[in-house]
Design brief:
The chain has twelve helices and 14 strands. By secondary structure, the protein is of the alpha/beta class. It binds pyridoxal-5'-phosphate (PLP).
């Protein structure tokens, strides 16, 4: 049996080796390392895939979030609402820009930001909501967009884990993750669902004005060369990463299908087990399974993880500490117990291997080992 990994990028690469190598070689041969044709091609290809007007490639997903917040013209102390159960980047950029992160609790079933908690957190200083489509499933965007409209707030979607997920609104219309709010952000970190071979990210928007300004901010605030209209940053996707992404984007739908197939096998194997709650499927969103995350009930999670490790099966805790309990984010506004759902989830979640290359033999081995470990 092939070695089981959380993510198997090598096996995935073997199948697209020619395309990746040819693309990278072309970049080297033309020495257009920054802002080359490959980056423009990828931008157009991704705009077409998402059905969004503007894709702005960036150096990584964290920068994408930062640039999205920079363009809104917010002032120090303005409040930005984000979930407490997520990866740190979301709150980090808010804090770095001198804005005030206001964290709220999540829904126990979907792990995504709680609508009721957003409503309670809104003050006259609230300027934006940053929902995170955690683990590959969209947050309740219908409700979030409604709240934003009512209170005149910006919505910036953190779609770093959810590229390719589709959301269906009550009127039947469908949109891609990251293409519903004012701005969407994604990451091409190697292990993400559409990953490059280094760092990369992108911003999505249908707003021409925001797009033009974010494109400038990502490139030193420059519109005409060496004329700086805005204070910017240096955050560009490089051409070698764009070449990798051009080779992988045509496979994104099959990659998503492969993840969903493995998730369905896990779902079936664990259904009805009293110690395991499998991921909830939110009716309005497809799930692209960046992670397949179990909730363990009445059983020692560390012991389960250790038993899996004995059988060479990695399993990870995403995320062990919610934002409001992180050392760097200590704040007199928050204390342990304030966000009970996030705290409960941090104590019981366990993510199993999830990637595009899991085969039947590996899936059988993992599911049997998990069932054995929770006995
Ligand atoms: C990966 C990730 C980011 C950051 O992306 P980088 O490309 O690593 O900077 C931000 N938010 C979430 C939810 C992520 O999963």
């Amino acid at each position: 049996m092939k070695k089981i990994q959380m993510v198997d990028l090598k096996s995935q690469y073997e199948k697209i080796r020619e395309d990746v190598n040819t693309g990278i070689q072309e970049v080297i041969d033309t020495t257009t390392f920054i802002k080359g044709g490959k980056v423009n091609d990828f931008q157009k290809n991704l705009e077409a895939y998402l059905g969004v007007k503007h894709v702005i490639p960036t150096g990584n997903g964290t920068d994408a979030l930062q640039i999205a917040l920079m363009v809104l013209g917010l002032k120090p102390g303005d409040e930005v609402i984000t979930p407490t159960f997520t990866f740190i980047a979301t709150a980090e950029v808010v804090a770095l820009l001198g804005l005030k992160p206001v964290v709220v609790d999540v829904e126990e079933d979907t792990f995504n930001i709680s609508i009721e908690c957003i409503k309670k957190a809104i003050t006259p200083k609230t300027k934006a909501i940053v929902p995170v489509h955690l683990f590959g499933q969209c947050a309740n965007m219908e409700a979030i967009l409604e709240i934003a409209k009512e209170h005149n707030l910006f919505v910036i979607e953190d779609a770093c884990q959810a590229i390719g997920a589709k959301y269906t609104f009550n009127d039947g219309s469908k949109k891609q993750a990251g293409c519903m709010g004012n701005i969407g952000c994604t990451s091409f970190f190697p292990s993400k669902n559409l990953g490059c071979y280094g760092d990369g990210g992108a911003i999505f928007t249908n707003d021409d004005d925001l797009a033009a300004r974010m494109r400038a901010i990502a490139n030193h605030g420059m519109v005409v060369q060496y004329h700086h209209d805005l204070i910017g940053v240096n955050s560009r996707l490089d051409s070698i990463q764009a070449a990798v992404l051009n080779a992988k984007l045509p496979h994104l739908n099959e990659y998503i299908a492969a993840r969903q197939k493995s998730a369905a096998i896990y779902d079936k194997a664990f259904a009805g087990n009293k110690h395991i709650i499998t991921p909830a499927h939110f009716a309005s969103s497809t799930h692209v399974f960046h992670q397949y995350t179990l909730k363990l009930v009445d059983i020692d999670r560390n012991a389960v993880q250790a038993k899996l490790k004995e059988k060479s099966i990695p399993a990870m805790i995403y995320y062990p500490v919610p934002l409001h309990l992180q050392k760097a984010y200590q704040d007199p506004r928050y204390k342990a117990g304030d966000f009970p759902i996030a705290e409960k989830l941090s104590a019981c979640v366990l993510s199993l291997p999830m990637h595009t290359e899991l085969d039947d033999e590996q899936m059988n081995y993992i599911t049997s080992a998990v069932l054995e470990a929770v006995k």
